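Friendly challenge for the regulars: who can give me the structure tokens for this chain first? No prize, just bragging rights.
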Amino acid sequence: MNAQRVYQLMKEYHSKTGKVMQGPEFEKQILSNFDSDSVIDGLLLFNKFLDESRSAFFKTAIFENYCEISL
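First reply, four minutes later:
Bragging rights claimed.
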């Protein structure tokens, strides 16, 4: 499925750089290689991944702060 490939490319780029692929790099890697439906679906998957990553990060940060305060 091409949407899954778009998602994987976006996730790999994010893992390597800590940034979201955009601009000329996005055009070169994604837009020029996939149809619009695959791009949209892949970006939705990637957005969900980012939301879940942020949620997990904040839950961990809140828990660690709570533990420090409790001690």
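The chain has one domain: 2-70. The helical segments are 2-17, 23-31, 36-70. Your move, everyone else.
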